[in-house]
Write a structure and sequence with these properties.
D-amino Acid Aminotransferase, Chain A, domain 1, disordered N terminus, 2 domains, 17 strands, 27% helix, alpha+beta, globular, 8 helices, D-amino Acid Aminotransferase, Chain A, domain 2
Length: 295
């Protein structure tokens, strides 16, 4: 039976001004942190990033995020110094009050002349930290509205969708389209009807005792939180399968959920105006994630 949930207005997902900022291992006032006007990150979006959640002076899933960032650097030949970034993250933990924070690591190859970057020594990394407003208990219980994105996921048939790149226009366009239509998230759909992922999230579908997700690879990011959910499936006596998903699967599922490192996992209550079932699975998984220190 289709559940009936009260309308829940999404919380204001705002952040205060950057509280802490680190550039190449040095803690600076944001106004004093500068990059050259000919930096490739500025000119071409030639940068990589990871977004992490910090809670109570601990940055969650750091190894998983740094592993993905290191892989991205190898694939795109970015300069990479894991030890320096790890040291800066440890220093950040010592500086944080007890609360929730959004931590972003950004890497650039550095200055660019045309399409050719300068030598690796011009590359840089930054770490920024802002206070983050977690989804409310009501939002976690009743979920959010989603819509189909008006655009497609770009760069098919390559490894680029597996990287968190500064060239984020496809996801930004989809996210803003969702906001303009009063929704929290926009889901990418292919011409063949398959549904891939959200602009800022992976998608998980519950059917019976099985969790389904589109296969990560050519068009779907292998999300850090998605892997945590996969690892919680067996302890919860659930199967976990990677399989193509279409609209009929979503409309007839027991629950459709979105996940990322900031929000954890949240249920969806509607998709482009069509109501979705809910069965409380997101709450079960969230509890398991909290118990293992993943959210």
């Amino acid at each position: 039976m289709r559940s009936v949930s009260p309308k829940v207005k999404p919380s204001a997902r705002h952040w205060e001004s950057i509280m802490l900022f680190n550039l190449n291992g040095q803690w600076l006032e944001q106004a004093n942190a500068t990059i050259p006007f000919d930096d490739g990150a500025l000119l071409f979006g030639d940068s990589l990033f990871e977004t992490l959640r910090a809670r109570n002076r601990e940055i969650l899933l750091t190894k998983d995020h740094l592993d993905r960032l290191e892989l991205s650097c190898r694939l795109l030949a970015f300069p990479w110094d894991r030890d320096r970034i790890t040291t800066a993250l440890n220093e950040l933990c010592d500086r944080l009050p007890d609360s929730s924070y959004r931590v972003r690591i950004t890497l650039s190859r550095g200055r660019a002349h045309g399409l050719s970057p300068d030598p690796a020594e011009t590359g840089w990394f930054s770490i920024s930290c802002r206070e983050y407003i977690d989804p409310s208990a009501e939002e976690q219980s009743h979920g959010f509205d989603a819509v189909y994105a008006a655009n497609r996921r770009v760069n098919p048939l390559s490894h680029l969708p597996q990287l968190k790149r500064g060239s984020y226009v496809d996801c930004l366009y989809a996210a803003r389209f969702a906001q303009q239509h009063g929704a929290r998230e926009a889901l990418f759909q292919e011409p063949d009807g398959s549904v891939l992922e959200g602009a800022t999230s992976n998608m998980v579908v519950c059917r019976g005792g099985t969790l389904l997700t589109p296969p990560p690879g050519e068009l779907v990011l292998a999300g850090v939180m998605l892997r945590q959910i996969r690892d919680t499936a067996h302890p919860l006596s659930l199967d976990f399968q990677e399989t193509p998903i279409n609209e009929e699967c979503l409309l007839t599922a027991d629950e459709v959920m979105i996940c990322n490192s900031l929000i954890g996992i949240l249920p969806l209550r509607s998709l482009s105006g069509r109501p979705l079932n809910q069965c409380g699975m997101a709450t079960r998984i969230r509890t398991a994630l909290q118990e293992r220190g993943a959210w």
